[in-house]
Amino acid sequence: MPNTEMIMPKMGESVAEATIIKWLKKEGDTVEADESVLEIATDKVDSEVPAPASGKILKLMFAEGETVQVGKVICLIGSESEQIVHSPQSTVTTAKQDEFQTKVISKSTQTDVASKLLTVDYGLSSRFYSPLVRNIAQKEGIAQEELDAIPGTGKEGRVTKNDILGYLPNRGKSVTSSTADVRGTSERAKIESEKQPTKSDVSHPVVSTPVAHKPAVSIGAGDEIIEMDRMRKLIAEHMVMSKHTSPHVTSYVEADVTNIVLWRNKWKDQFEKREGEKLTFTPIFIEAIAKAIKDFQMVNVSVNGTQIIVKKNINI
Fold this sequence. Notes:
Blueprint: E1 4-7, E2 17-23, E3 30-31, E4 36-41, E5 46-50, E6 55-60, E7 67-69, E8 73-78, H1 80-84, H2 88-108, H3 113-124, H4 131-140, H5 144-148, H6 161-167, H7 171-181, H8 184-195, H9 230-245, H10 258-275, H11 282-295, E9 301-304, E10 307-310
């Protein structure tokens, strides 16, 4: 029975890579089809990846903490008989694995120098970078030293998407000096502290997050303290970031939706029999909003410092 290649799945439309959080199985373990083999994380979701077939784990291609491109082989699964009986086939299997690893290595050497440095240095950096941030850095040709010098506004100084996008317009002014002086982790920290005050407030609208002024939390006797999981931390971080990037304002306007209610009441029973789902007001409102955005395009924008980005597509 040929080996089964387990590949990194695509967890969303814009997700190009994922980070391996934890291997739930190790080499030599037996696994059943659809049994979870590892946990992965992206900027959008944390998930467990099931085995595509039953067998034994022959080879784990990546270690915990590594970021892997979607579609890459992350694990080899073989039949139990091949593992128990040391037949000539096992030698062929090993040779194929070695050949696969050689191809992966030779392919990586063909990439450009900047991308290769980014891949290696990110693994050695003591600072955490999300897959999205590293992907942007790689596309823009930002070296490890330069990335380490970017002030982060996320939790524990983490560089967020807004940080790196806000840094790009002023990149040419600080790349030369920062890359020339960066030598080692301690010196990078020094460069960060020296560079932060000179960064433009326009490029980094959220640098001055009042972390030091957070109100003290009262903890009483018997209160239970639960550490947030990774997803909750990301949600909390992004919600606070959105407040600093674009303060929320709500405006109320009354509208007569009598005709909508009458139309829904007329068709809801027929719709449920045909589709097996209830007809709610949500899709009606979404269609109305999408049509209104076509007439008022400045509603569908995002803010990057002092830049207004008018979106071409309407994301419902």
